[in-house]
Design brief:
- This protein has three domains: 2-140, Jelly Rolls (Sandwich); 153-267, Sandwich (Jelly Rolls), CATH 2.60.120.290; 371-475, no CATH class.
- It is 13% helix and 27% strand.
- The protein has six helices and 22 strands.
- The chain has helices spanning 2-13, 166-170, 314-317, 320-346, 418-423, 455-460, and strands spanning 22-25, 31-34, 46-53, 58-64, 80-84, 93-97, 105-107, 112-119, 129-136, 153-157, 160-164, 180-187, 193-202, 212-218, 226-230, 238-240, 244-251, 259-267, 276-278, 284-286, 430-434, 445-449.
- A five-stranded mixed sheet has the order 1-3-8-5-6, with no helix packed on it. A five-stranded mixed sheet has the order 10-12-17-14-15, with no helix packed on it. Strands 2-9-4-7 form a four-stranded antiparallel sheet.
- β19 and β20 form a beta hairpin.
- The radius of gyration is 62 Å and the shape is elongated.
Length: 475
């Protein structure tokens, strides 16, 4: 029995067949693994990786035997065991161990545990022996619904294709109340590679990888071939280096609204063949993918210069014959239109004179007559010397129209009495015609002035008109 156990341990350690080192364990009943050649000394220059995978909602417990010896060093920089909480070398580190003291017990927080054993070229020891088992994840103890996983796998191939989570519902692989662990296997032609571009991505419970995630594998579905794992709010494009790609979606009962949509494109590296298109990114894709409305290259070289898709119009449905008929008809119409324009230009133009009817003066507007002003005309001319004694007055006619009805005299005006002037003999008599602002001469007043008035009498007597109205004269 002891020999059988040792044989099983050696098989788990990867010692047989010779040259292999490391393994991937997911036995639901647990198991064990050891360093190479345990309990003998491990060989120099070795690096072995062990990945343990538990079922969903389970954790991993690892127990190291007391029989344990690894070359001691400061901070275990030489021979050592490195344990990480997750499936990758970049997962959070749990510890690094060496020396003569066994780490005894290690526990993961999730479904995966990553363990690496490193041996340099000097000072070998017996190494280690460990066993593992799986326990219930404490985060899911309150979940009453038992976890049931149905078989969910899809096979895809071709120069391009769409991998989407909606295929699970379309194929009725599982109910909405069940957890899913589905895998899509993409198989490219031999010698080809696969480019994956996310078109849609959404995790219902983001940043909770225990409840939902999308993982990409390069070569197989083994955890050691896992290329990327997405469970946050963003997913990046992935370039696979082999002709087999695997996409895995895990979602528990409360994460079934998680969804994704991925475009895969198979390609070859340059030099490109005749039936391929060079993407300017070390990709040669099938020529049928050019201008298909989908970006298959890393950069949109395959869609540059392509006409945008538009709705079918009448012109799209016309054949060569219809286009010829339309062209000929349009040419004839254009020629006729040009000829008509030339004829119109060369044709002499007739001049027409429009004779007006008999001129009607009544159509002319009435002439505007100037207003009549009151004028005072002297009956006889007299020299300026005869009036040297007269006082110049700045007074105006008292009446409204220069010579009108008299008003009360003031200090600035001089009233001339024509009766007194008539009695003087020194100044010859004169007559002054007074005209009012009127359109007729009916109210014309004549003022007679005697030339014989003396200077003194002129100052004492006011001017008077023949009709008895007062009149003012400016000298």
């Amino acid at each position: 029995m002891i020999q059988i156990t040792l044989l099983i341990v050696k098989n788990n350690s990867g010692v047989t067949p010779e040259g292999l080192c490391g393994a991937w364990f997911k036995n639901p009943d647990g198991g064990s693994f050891t360093s190479p050649n345990f309990p003998e000394k491990y060989p120099p220059d070795r690096e072995c990786t062990y990945i343990i995978e538990a079922s969903p909602r389970q954790c991993i417990d690892v127990y190291f035997d007391e029989q344990y010896a690894i070359e001691p060093s400061w901070e275990c920089k030489f021979d050592h065991i490195e344990v990480r909480d997750g499936p990758f070398s970049s997962s959070p580190i749990i510890g690094r161990y060496c020396g003569q003291q066994s780490p005894m017990y290690v526990r993961s927080s999730g479904r995966y545990l990553w363990i690496k054993f490193v041996a340099d070229s000097e000072l070998e020891a017996i190494g280690f022996s460990a066993r593992y088992n799986f326990t219930e994840d404490p985060e899911f103890r309150d979940v009453e619904t038992p976890l049931t996983l149905a078989s969910c796998e899809f096979e895809m191939s071709g120069s391009e294709g769409i991998v989407e989570s909606a295929m699970v519902e379309k194929e009725s692989e599982s109910l909405q109340t069940e957890a899913v662990d589905c895998k899509w296997f993409i198989r490219a032609p031999p010698g080809s590679k696969i480019y994956l571009r996310f078109l849609e991505y959404e995790m219902q419970n983001s940043n909770e990888c225990k409840r939902n995630f999308v993982a990409v594998y390069d070569g197989s579905s083994s955890v050691e071939h896992m290329k990327n794992k997405f469970c946050s709010t963003v997913a990046n494009d992935v370039m696979l280096l082999t002709s087999v790609g695997v996409i895995r979606m895990w979602a528990d009962e409360g994460s079934r609204k998680s969804r994704f949509r991925i475009l895969f494109t198979t390609f070859r590296e340059p030099p490109c063949e005749a039936a391929t298109f060079f993407c300017h990114s070390n990709m040669c894709i099938n020529h049928t993918l050019v201008c298909n409305g989908i970006q298959n290259c890393v950069y949109p070289w395959d869609e540059n210069g392509c006409k945008e898709k538009r709705k079918t119009t009448i012109l799209d449905n016309m054949d060569h014959t219809n286009m010829t008929i339309i062209g000929v008809t349009s040419g004839v119409v254009l020629i006729l239109f040009t000829a008509s324009i030339i004829l119109q230009i060369k044709q002499p133009r007739r001049k027409y004179l429009v004779r007006l009817d008999e001129f009607d003066p009544a159509l002319l507007p009435e002439p505007l007559e100037p207003p009549l002003y009151e004028l005072c005309a002297l009956r006889s001319t007299a020299s300026a010397e005869d009036f040297s004694g007269l006082r110049r007055s700045s007074s105006k006619c008292v009446n409204t129209h220069h010579c009108g009805t008299s008003q009360a005299s003031n200090g600035s005006r001089t009233d001339l009495n024509l009766d007194v002037l008539a009695e003087t003999t020194s100044i010859p008599s004169r007559s002054i015609v007074v005209m009012k602002h009127s359109r007729s001469l009916e109210n014309t007043e004549v003022c007679e002035v005697e030339d014989e008035l003396e200077d003194e009498d002129l100052e004492e007597q006011p001017w008077r008109s023949v009709s008895g109205h007062e009149c003012s004269v400016h000298v």
